[in-house]
């Protein structure tokens, strides 16, 4: 009977899935979400994990915590701010949701009338090639962006393949139409990001070139190949840098007009056309991290058509396939939140290799990916928490390729370390910890390791023993980082302890007892920075004494990075039970976490919080940044797990809205969105590298997760609504679940779970 | 009988050759010749046509016509000026004898004592790492250079393979010995040549990196791999450029000391050692135009030993082989002049590809040379005259590879032109004409064309029809370049006419009548700028009138480049007979040329003459620059060829001495030296692309030229000395020669020629 019932349920799941699979899910994706204020997402076109991410630039140099222009505060990271009134053009590379900036390569802008090669200023938009625009004339979809450029009466449309951007510009009738290629433009150009650029006009429809920048990536080269659908009738450039050595020799040709090639530090080029009313000029724009020849090969492989709609549709079909990995039941707003989040989890990391497998390695040499797709844009301090665990469920093969990319990074790392923040063949060293070990360990522990797992363990161990890096030496020798040795001594100690636990889990899985012993011991180091007197993780000096001047509310100079002691004290994701004990037991712990959510943080503390709007904070709980993402789930280790359910259902609608200002903090290359996916499905990976998920409170009415091999994990949610947030009962594959945890196998084996919800906690 | 005699003579030649072949000829090579004043040669180490040319830098920014420091006058081109008192270090790339500068990559300097990372100044040598030195402690040989660095009491020695520089530094005992790698240093750095540099310390004996410069080559990248014979005990760097974007992130490591990698615009690095008295630290330093991996591969292929003497001896053996292609009889001074000239003809062009055949093309992509060695450093305005014709006799295979390199350049040229001045995957456009066609035509006409000769002709024709380039359009449409359209209208018209004749000869050889007809007609365009009234080639305006204000002595604004009307009027190398007619016939022509040599040029004219010392001028005849190199031989077309003999024997000792100041002008990558080789052997290629050589007056007592296939061309000179400069009789292969011309076949078929000399002309 039991067996039959299971079969019945599975069949139901399949039918539900089959029914849902035809629904257009791209319709729910709103790339515009997060473009206002601090989300740092972009509204432009990309396929999943595309190397080209083609999006408008609104040229906001910097903005303040409310997303308003302020040159002295925050960087403009994704190229587009919803409140801006003008567009300067469309560039081919973007980060999604980061807190620092780079990219924005190869800006293209169509104009008519008198040629202006300067972008002009926000205050005087007519002084340059920029154009005012209106959101009323803007369409932003997965792999499609459209906007009317009011200044020029041009409709701009764009779509992409993995390595090629497709532009389609519908012009008015003009004897003086231009397409500008601005090689100077870039995101966060301060102080002088361009190192060198080169451009070669092969004929009147083909141009190639490259750009070398010194930005967040210290030495980043990107190559391009550009094809016009219609021959230009003239072309030229202007060099905005100071005079060059021997510049006069090249003057033997008139290089300004119709030059065959040009190189320099600050170049803007233009291409002239005559257009009829409604005439479309299209551009294919391929990029390569390897060479101009590589860009041409990428173009030839991926851009075989001038049919813009076909390219758009092919790309949207890729999105449909990815989005269908989780189908949900719920209202439109829920689906918009959910599929926009799904979309945002599939922008970064990005493919970083040519169609022939060649890519630039961290050693600045050209390498060939052997049997995997090479990725870059790893914001691992953020993404190890939920993004990579999500990939391990719905896209394990890609996650394994990402692990292989990280191991290839290790092999070429001059410091012999796994990536911290990998950006286009460069290491940014952004943020703390060595959280790549979490990603590698999570894959190994969860059985998703089609790579040399023992080599992966070695890479982790080598990284974790790098005594010269950010206090690791002190940490290894003393069990903590002394306050006087590092500004972030406490958060680094906590993060290393978690990472070390990951390494221990991996070693355990691989049967390496010596490494397990070494690192399980290190993983307890968090205890060394807990001060029972203050009741917080607390900066400690080398003499073993806790610092006297201490403010647990501020994030400034208290030993923590991007967080205060109140939040960071809870950062022991790998051993909440011990943490609870350390903090005085179940009751005191609950009071502590309750207080975090209910405290009314004075404005003076808010003002110093990076990368998040005030909306990204609930009480003193900071959801707009990552260190607290696991916090609500910690109630599962107390006797009041219903408090987790309550808090999660409070956070979800507050922090995620299907509107431009719908994200309360940086999306951080998808981590914020991955939290949404897990939490709205009802569970969350509190400690990646364990095979356990803590249960929260599902916000969907039901869901089917494709877990590979044709299997599905069906989530049924009975009687859920905004008030019925409390779990009354859980049935897993026909059996009551008597704990607040799911295992990875529970999900990946396929099956079904049913949540019975009610308005009161049990 | 006749036959027997010939056999006898040939046997004699063979015996003579066999006897001479064991003589050490490297002993006569004095690389120091031309390093004083305007020769612009360098004294350092290289194998023939080496990619690495490792030589000391004396850091003279610029100097005047007498070779004295003057920052406002001339560039420092080869890195070394004999009169300088200090050496700043040893760099790996140099031009030999050019008039403009670039290169000087990767400067290495050993020091002891307090670390100084600035080179210091000439006035205060102790303020930096530079060292005083003395010529008494200097040895400069083919592929070997040695000097004592007085400041540091270090003996520096260097030698090379084609792609690897070998350094050997003998230190005193020191606890503080350093080897500095200065990535900022370069030749003619003004105003800001370095674009970007990168360095990666792999371990304590291996370093790789690259440098991107914007110099005479607009965009030049060079990669390196460096290996120390002894592990350094510490290393560090200083960045002399302004702060970098996000520079702080890399500060997570202490990168100043023992950094793993660094990148920036202005870097100097150091490596620390402890040394015993007399301890040798050696460095292998490989370069590549392709990549760091390429440099490593070049290192592995060529630098398999640490035996410095072996590398030196192997390289000198290469020189012996090359030098033995012409063995001569004569005194020591003659041999020093001759073999130093031979040496200087084999420095440039330079190999420009890795051991695997990969090289960077003019399109900035990586290419693979298919069946040839790729070369760069083509100073064709100079070298088409005698250097490439010399190669067609003694090294035809290499010359054909150079032609193939030039054709590969054409294939990648965005302007679709053969090289004008090719420098490391860049076109400098230096000087006028399209003289590569002379090189291609000379090879084809002389039967040295193991390449697609018809394609070569096409490349020439396409180049010659490039209407946008330097007045070619006017030249094609009007038969001359109007004075008002180009500052060098007359010299360009003359040069194009000669080049066009070359194309015609090539077309004739290939049976292409249409091209022959077109270009033989163009080759007569020189007539259009001859003014019978002034008696000179004369600037002419578009209305067909000759310019009124005209000074045939000055080189400034008279329609000529690097020459005056007096010299340039004789520039019709392809048709002296017609020129003589045009200028009023035999008698008037002789008076004209006589006057050229006897005129006492006022100092005011001398002061404006570029690239030559006053010693480079005889009367108004300018031997120190190329346009007059054929002039003395023009007497062969008159009834007084003995005047050619007289003038040539006057020029030879005046212009070529085996002393540092022995060259009267830029050696121009070997053209000046090639003139010496030909002229001292007794003949000269007045018009390359003809198969004729005009006979002068041999200055050797005899010579044997290896012409390939085991054949030799023996030159016997009877009764020659400084007074006996006049030819009494010539016997070619046993037959009296009754003309003043030799054919290419006469030489290349092997055989012998005997000059009978006397004190009076016949």
Features:
homodimer, 762 residues, alpha+beta, Beta-galactosidase, Chain A, domain 5, GH92 mannosidase fold, 9-stranded antiparallel beta sheet, 6-stranded mixed beta sheet, 38 strands, 28% helix, globular
What can you tell me about this protein's structure?
The structure is a homodimer of 762-residue chains. By secondary structure, chain A is of the alpha+beta class. Chain A folds into two domains: 105-320, Distorted Sandwich (Beta-galactosidase, Chain A, domain 5); 325-758, GH92 mannosidase domain (GH92 mannosidase fold, 2-Layer Sandwich), CATH 3.30.2080.10. The first copy, chain A, is 28% helix and 23% strand. Chain A has a nine-stranded antiparallel beta sheet. The first copy, chain A, has a six-stranded mixed beta sheet with strand order 20-33-34-38-35-36, with helices on both faces. The first copy, chain A, starts with a helix and ends with a strand. The model of chain A is unreliable at 1-20 (pLDDT under 50). At the A-B interface, strand 13, strand 14 and strand 17 of A face strand 13, strand 14 and strand 17 of B. Chains A, B: Residues 1-18 form the signal peptide.
